[in-house]
């Protein structure tokens, strides 16, 4: 009977929090000032002025499933330092504004757990080190989902060269989000994350942002336990399109103007594409890169080829078979939108994927 109870408890625990995820630092992508410190620790900002960084788990998650994320967070050593760390849910990898934005400022839509260690009076910050739930990259507490409350129940200083245990739990059945700091539940809030924040989109990435401004502190995150169900595959719609030989446009692929450096935000989708291809070993992936009509036609042809090559090089570096990959730079031909508008030009700057069996 005791064994039965144990099994039932284990099953209910997994049903509530999802599977425990084995992880390595290669599962996280870093932006801005963020750097890897060791096998479990990431430094998001150093003890320097005007730094902004973020770290993101490689795969998105479905908010219709539960998650449990447990870490140790280091807020620095200077009580007069700034600015803090934010736990972020966002549909793409991004880094928000510096300083008071704490790496999430301006990201819309987004959900943030703001762990703020500096009082910005114009943002209605509390005078103590505090935590609040924030939405859509807003920094002013009049726009917050909750009022700021002390991180420490006794309003103690957390910028004291100490790692603090922090937990984030999401239960989609009850729509309860829970934040725990050093073994004490500080926020427990019912909130419809999917509809209220993300307009019905349940697939988001999770990560942390941090920033310094005219004051500074070192901000570190040490991973302890991850329990969730990652979206390791493309959507059903995308898989069906690829399997049918239809054109699939890579999302989250925004190259900097004139640059062929592969943006980090494209890598999770490319990883999923490669995993999907494992079920179709006879197929070849064909990449077609396009630009908008800005600039010289010859330059557009060159940069589109370089961008396609950058994607191919990334896939090959991850073990994808070179002989199963073909890429082309097409420049500004075959626009799908009006090049006279900013949005139209953005739509035309794209990389299309087709999977085919090529008989030699």
> Major β-sheet, in short?
9 strands, antiparallel
Overall pLDDT confidence:
89
- Radius of gyration based on Cα positions: 22 Å
Low-confidence sequence ranges = 1-16
β-strand percent reads 25-35%
Question: SSE order, as H and E?
Answer: HEEEEEEEEEEEEEHEEEHEHEHEHE
Note the gap between the termini: 64 Å
Question: How many beta-strand runs?
Answer: 20
Sheet/helix structural class: alpha+beta
Query: How would you describe the shape?
Result: globular
Number of helices: 6
Helix content: 10-25%
Describe this structure in a few short sentences.
The chain is an alpha+beta fold. It contains six helices and 20 strands.
Give a description of the structure.
The chain is α+β, with helices and mostly antiparallel strands. It is built from 6 helices and 20 strands. The strands form 3 sheets. Strands 1, 4, 5, 7, 8, 9, 10, 14 and 16 form a 9-stranded antiparallel beta sheet that branches. The protein has a 7-stranded antiparallel beta sheet with strand order 2-3-15-6-11-12-13, with no helix packed on it. Strand 11 and strand 12 form a beta hairpin. The longest helix has 21 residues, at 297-317.
């Amino acid at each position: 009977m005791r064994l039965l109870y144990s099994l039932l408890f284990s099953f209910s625990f997994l049903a509530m929090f999802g599977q425990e995820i084995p992880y390595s630092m290669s599962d996280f992508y870093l932006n801005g000032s963020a750097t890897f410190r060791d096998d479990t620790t990431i430094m998001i900002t150093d003890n320097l002025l005007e730094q902004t960084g973020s770290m993101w788990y490689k795969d998105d998650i479905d908010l219709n499933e539960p998650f449990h994320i447990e870490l140790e967070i280091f807020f620095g050593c200077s009580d007069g330092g700034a600015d803090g760390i934010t736990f972020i849910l966002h549909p793409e990898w991004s880094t928000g504004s510096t300083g008071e934005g704490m790496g999430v400022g301006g990201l819309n839509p987004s959900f943030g757990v703001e762990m703020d260690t500096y009082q910005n009076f114009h943002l209605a910050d509390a005078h103590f080190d505090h935590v609040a739930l924030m939405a859509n990259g807003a920094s002013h507490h009049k726009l917050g989902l909750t009022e700021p409350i002390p991180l420490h129940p006794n309003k103690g200083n957390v910028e004291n060269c100490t790692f603090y245990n922090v937990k984030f739990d999401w239960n989609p059945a009850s729509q309860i989000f829970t934040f725990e700091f050093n073994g004490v539940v500080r926020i427990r809030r019912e909130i419809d994350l999917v509809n209220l924040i993300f307009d019905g989109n349940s697939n988001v990435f999770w990560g942390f942002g941090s920033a310094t401004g005219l004051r500074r502190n070192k901000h570190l995150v040490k991973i302890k336990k991850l329990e969730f169900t990652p979206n390791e595959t493309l959507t059903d719609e995308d898989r069906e399109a690829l399997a049918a030989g239809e054109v699939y446009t890579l999302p989250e692929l925004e190259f900097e103007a004139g640059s062929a450096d592969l943006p980090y935000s494209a890598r999770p989708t490319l990883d999923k594409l490669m995993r999907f291809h494992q079920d179709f070993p006879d197929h070849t992936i064909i990449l077609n890169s396009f630009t908008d009509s800005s600039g010289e036609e010859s330059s557009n042809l060159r940069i589109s080829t370089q961008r396609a090559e950058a994607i191919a090089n990334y896939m090959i570096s991850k073990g994808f078979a070179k002989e199963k990959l073909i890429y082309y730079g097409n420049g500004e031909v075959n626009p799908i939108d009006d090049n006279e508008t900013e949005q139209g030009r953005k739509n035309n700057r794209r990389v299309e994927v087709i999977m085919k069996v090529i008989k030699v």
